Amino acid sequence: MDQHSALPFPFQSPGALEMAEEWERLRRSCPVARVGFATGDNGWLVTRYEDVRTVLTDARFSRAAAALPDAPRMRPLAADAATILSKDAPEHTRLHKLVARAFGKKQIERLRPFVEQTTQELLDVMEQAGPSADLVADLGLPLPVAVICQLLGVPFADRDRFCRWADVMLSLGTHTSDQVRAARSELAGYLGELIKVKRQREGDDDLLSTLIGASEAGDRLSEHELVVFGVTLLIAGYHTTSSTFANGALQLLRRPDLTASIAGNPERIRATVEEILRYSTAGVNGGTIRVATEDVELGGVLVRAGEAVLPAITSANRDETVFANAAAFDPDRDHNPHLAFGLGTHYCLGSQLARLELTVVIDGLLRRFPKLRLAVPEEELSCTAGVIRSLTALPVVW
């Protein structure tokens, strides 16, 4: 394959949550390939594990440069330059210090009782309304939304509003630039008003209140940084977890013999969650664009300064040179160094929370409904059209 001829990207999936055949072909024959985005921009798609690790950890591949207005991009609008996702060191380091404590293991463990209680309540409602349910609408979406609302201090009653804005912001080709800009503005305005209310109250221990008072060596978040952090945490806090759960639930429904041996076994549940994270195809892009700040040799290709580079984590997690029988879903694999949460500076702040939610909900679901099965032919399942690909519904019976 000619690495200089741009392939249309993203690739078309052959089925619900399956990976397009282009991924394996590129890993094998053209691991750093030129791709063309719907915006008209081009970039380099990186598909092998070691090359992806390099892009994630090498400071010459910049997230800040990718947020500049004239940078190559996949989506209609450039990312907000104020978000931590668009910062390089030392600015990223500054913001990370201000919020990292809120995502430590001890702080996340404080949420465990709420996660467990909410999961059981949702399962109770499913059971009472059964013997059928939609695992997306009845469990996979409301749980992470409830948890992120509890963590941030955002009213759960407002979920329909902010989920609608988030869906538009994460769309890929289905909304105009003006619609995306309007959704971004409305969500920012909503959180800005909420922050104003929280500034006038004392004693709240939610994350937004903590961020309002957070300081590190006298440094504080600006008002805009607070709002942008809220937007980032709210969307990232539920969207990817919901999509990953739906993806993993489908893999388990395909393998009833496997689920019978997992239920009630904490060690196997944890291993299953790690395999779900590795195997998930929720990220349509597979990663987030960086821009090279200087000429860099990568995977046998010379990436020029100013060119976009997309480290495809989804593809790296299927690299046959790293994961034995990589195309198979195998919770019992001995070696699973997946990159689902990234690596280096931008390693996901919410990794501990995502693992907690997925572990609790998978365990609870398999215990409560050991005979769970798909209620429709798999070819009837469909996915959302956005940066994060998720099943629109997952009908089940028991």
From TrEMBL:
<keyword id="KW-0479">Metal-binding</keyword>
<dbReference type="Pfam" id="PF00067">
    <property type="entry name" value="p450"/>
</dbReference>
<keyword id="KW-0560">Oxidoreductase</keyword>
<dbReference type="InterPro" id="IPR017972">
    <property type="entry name" value="Cyt_P450_CS"/>
</dbReference>
<protein>
    <submittedName>
        <fullName>Cytochrome P450</fullName>
    </submittedName>
</protein>
<dbReference type="InterPro" id="IPR002397">
    <property type="entry name" value="Cyt_P450_B"/>
</dbReference>
<dbReference type="InterPro" id="IPR001128">
    <property type="entry name" value="Cyt_P450"/>
</dbReference>
<comment type="similarity">
    <text>Belongs to the cytochrome P450 family.</text>
</comment>
<dbReference type="InterPro" id="IPR036396">
    <property type="entry name" value="Cyt_P450_sf"/>
</dbReference>
<keyword id="KW-0349">Heme</keyword>
<keyword id="KW-0503">Monooxygenase</keyword>
<keyword id="KW-0408">Iron</keyword>
